[in-house]
């Protein structure tokens, strides 16, 4: 009966206390006061707060946040575009002589051209030559007829001939008067010699007492009178001679004037025969038999083929920079020939003005009238500058920025472009010698900051 009693005693013994495990809301860590665990020997042990796992987690989270902030502030936000290297053109910036020039097309023309105009209107009666014929100065080209003009010329000639005849009559009258004066002088001189002999004879007789005083005085008076007549006649002849000289000089001048008038009257008649004004080639002739031609109409032209020039049309943008004496070059048959501007035509027609350029030394033998050639016209003298090859990028950027190759990328950079030639741009700032620049078209690159170059 002992067993039931032992069971009771065992149930009455005190039981060891168990630590309550607190519930954590939201996964929080337990407080230090609740971290003591009663072991079988009733010893209290504290749990570590900064475990290795926890430190690693916090460090990773912190590094991520820092990386995000850094990228947000200092990261590369530029717009990029991948391009294939073989699809673009890359040019190197160099330093060398820069000369601004333009390339224009010029037309070969004879060095001189003389136009044939109708000086007197009329109807084409006969054509002596055809286009392309070689002519000498004065060679007849065609004949015009104008009956009304011919009649007017005959009337004017008749009037002038009448004046010429009157002038000749005046000349004959002057000559006749001179002859009469000479004859009268001869009679006076003869009478003077006779009275002189009679006077000398009466003087001797009077002195010897053989003659009367009355006879002596009468002979003396006649002698003195004839001397006065001779003196008067000599003066008359002298005055008449001077007058006749002046009259003849005036008549000569009048005769020359009448001859010039006669030539002028006849010239329209001579102009009815159209002649070549210079030696050369009759390159144009616009006339048909029976065609009526008004005065001033252009019939054709004669070209001097000893040398050639080039007529060049230039954009009006350069009109203030083109002056007489500027030089240029032209390549014909693999030879370079020097040119110079001889004449500038200031008239602007359809946005262009023209200049004439002559060959400086020899003229190419193969050129012909009417052919066109490309001319390199120099606008200034060569000078040292930083150069970048021309390319399609300029149409997009206007020379304000370019893509500069840096490693495997081409980075957008602001630059300043100055003068330009058909081959190069003058770089004023933003680039250095040796740098490489994408010079091909920048179409669709306006909003791009970097080009990633792919091979």
Q: How would you describe the overall organization of this protein?
A:
Helix 3 (147-207) packs antiparallel against helix 4. A hairpin with a 2-residue loop joins strand 12 and strand 13. The chain contains five helices and 22 strands. The longest helix is centred in the middle third of the chain and has 61 residues, at 147-207. The protein has 455 residues and is α+β, with helices and mostly antiparallel strands. Residues 1-41 have low confidence and may be disordered. Helices cover 35% and strands 32% of the residues.
Count, helices: 5
Give the overall average pLDDT: 83
Query: Which structural class do you get from the secondary structure elements?
Result: alpha+beta
The residue ranges in which pLDDT falls below 50 over 5 or more consecutive positions are: 1-41
Our count of domains comes out at 4
CATH top level assignment of the largest domain: Mainly Beta
The CATH topology of the largest domain corresponds to Elongation Factor Tu (Ef-tu), domain 3
Rg on CA atoms, Å = 62 Å
Order of helices and strands: HHEEEEEEEHHEEEEEEEEEHEEEEEE
């Amino acid at each position: 009966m002992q067993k039931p009693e032992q069971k009771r005693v065992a149930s009455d013994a005190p039981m060891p206390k168990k630590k309550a495990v607190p519930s954590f809301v939201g996964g929080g860590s337990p407080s230090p006061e609740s971290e003591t665990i009663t072991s079988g020997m009733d010893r209290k042990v504290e749990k570590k707060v900064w475990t290795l796992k926890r430190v690693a987690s916090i460090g990773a989270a912190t590094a991520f946040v820092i990386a995000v902030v850094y990228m947000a502030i200092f990261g590369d936000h530029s717009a990029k575009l991948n391009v294939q290297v073989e699809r673009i053109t890359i040019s190197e910036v160099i330093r060398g002589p820069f000369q601004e020039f333009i390339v224009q097309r010029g037309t070969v023309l004879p060095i001189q051209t003389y136009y044939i105009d109708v000086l007197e209107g009329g109807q084409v009666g006969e054509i002596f030559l055809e286009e392309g014929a070689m002519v000498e100065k004065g060679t007849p080209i065609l004949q015009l007829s104008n009956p009304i003009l011919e009649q007017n010329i005959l009337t004017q000639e008749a009037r002038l001939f009448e004046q010429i005849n009157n002038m000749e009559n005046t000349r004959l009258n002057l000559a006749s008067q001179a002859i009469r004066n000479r004859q009268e002088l001869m009679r006076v001189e003869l009478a003077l010699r006779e009275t002189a002999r009679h006077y000398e004879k009466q003087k001797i007789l009077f002195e010897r007492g053989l003659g009367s005083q009355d006879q002596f005085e009468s002979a003396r008076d006649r002698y003195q009178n004839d001397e006065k007549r001779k003196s008067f006649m000599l003066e008359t002849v002298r005055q008449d001679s001077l007058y006749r000289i002046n009259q003849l000089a005036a008549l000569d001048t009048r005769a020359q004037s009448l001859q010039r008038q006669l030539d002028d009257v006849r010239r329209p008649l001579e102009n009815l025969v159209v002649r070549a004004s210079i030696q050369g080639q009759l390159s144009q002739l616009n006339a048909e038999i029976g065609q009526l031609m008004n005065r001033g109409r252009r019939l054709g032209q004669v070209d001097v083929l000893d040398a050639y020039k080039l007529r060049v049309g230039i954009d009006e943008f350069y009109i203030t920079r083109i002056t007489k004496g500027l030089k240029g070059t032209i390549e014909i048959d693999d030879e370079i020939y020097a040119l110079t501007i001889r004449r500038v035509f200031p008239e602007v027609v359809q946005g262009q003005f023209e200049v004439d350029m002559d060959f400086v030394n020899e003229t190419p033998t193969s050129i012909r009238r009417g052919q066109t050639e490309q001319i390199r016209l120099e606008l200034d003298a060569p000078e040292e500058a930083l150069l970048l090859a021309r390319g399609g990028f300029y149409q997009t950027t206007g020379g304000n920025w370019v893509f500069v190759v840096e490693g495997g990328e081409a980075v957008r950079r602001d630059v300043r472009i100055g003068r330009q030639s058909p081959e190069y741009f003058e770089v004023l700032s933003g680039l250095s010698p040796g740098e490489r620049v994408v010079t091909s078209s920048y179409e669709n690159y306006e909003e791009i900051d970097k080009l990633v170059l792919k091979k």
